[in-house]
């Protein structure tokens, strides 16, 4: 029997896998194997090799840094997965309110410059990644698309605003998993309520506008069965 193609979900932290791993595994069980690569950070706001420099350079290289991260992840899997095993790469990022106009950023004046730098880098990196429909290694292309939680997973899935401790994030993730692990249709219906649009491009246009990246929403539903995907 041929091995099922792997759907690789690239996420920022371990609580994404805790909240979604079992649900997505059950959702895709007939067609695909689900795996998670945990980045332990946000690649869209990382400077990369060479340290702090031009945000334009960091954004320009974000796709290559993502590709290398996936290759490194595959090399650490046991039993070993290869690039040929991948059916799609699905990345999930937090909007982190990073797309609001500069004049609407409210914070301590001493941190304003750093926050604006972070926002500008994330804006450029996200737009760069949205220009990609695949990642390629050894002449083999794998479909790729970027999805989001706004402002973050805790806000989108649990309606929790403000900062959460690591313990609180774990508790919220476990509660979400418990609620939907045996109710896959309820999970899909819930994600439908977070969609700004059924069109992938329009969901991104929405969070780019005004202060919408502060609002509770997500386009993850479009990566799942019976939805118009951003994957080509």
Summarize this entry quickly.
The chain has about 230 residues and is an alpha/beta fold. The protein contains 8 helices and 6 strands. The relative contact order is 0.16.
Q: How is this fold's topology laid out?
A:
Elements: E1 5-11, H1 14-27, E2 32-38, H2 55-60, H3 62-75, E3 86-94, H4 109-130, E4 134-137, E5 140-150, H5 153-158, H6 166-180, H7 184-194, H8 200-208, E6 217-218
Parallel strand pairs: 1-2, 1-3, 3-5
Antiparallel strand pairs: 4-5, 5-6
Helix pairs in contact: 1-6
Describe what this molecule looks like in 3D.
The chain has 8 helices and 6 strands; from the N terminus they run E-H-E-H-H-E-H-E-E-H-H-H-H-E. By secondary structure, the protein is α/β, with parallel strands linked by helices. Strands 1, 2, 3, 4, 5 and 6 form a 6-stranded mixed beta sheet that branches. Helix 1 (14-27) runs parallel beside helix 6 (166-180).
Name the descriptors:
42% helix, 232 residues, alpha/beta, single chain, six-stranded mixed β-sheet
The count of helical stretches stands at: 8
Order of helices and strands: EHEHHEHEEHHHHE
Give the overall form: globular
Helix-and-strand structural type: alpha/beta
Which spans have pLDDT < 50 for at least 5 consecutive residues?
none
Number of strands: 6
Supply Rg.
Answer: 17 Å
Mean pLDDT: 91
Q: What's the main sheet like?
A: 6 strands, mixed
Helix content: 40-55%
- Distance between the first and last residues' Cα: 26 Å
Q: What is the strand content?
A: 15-25%
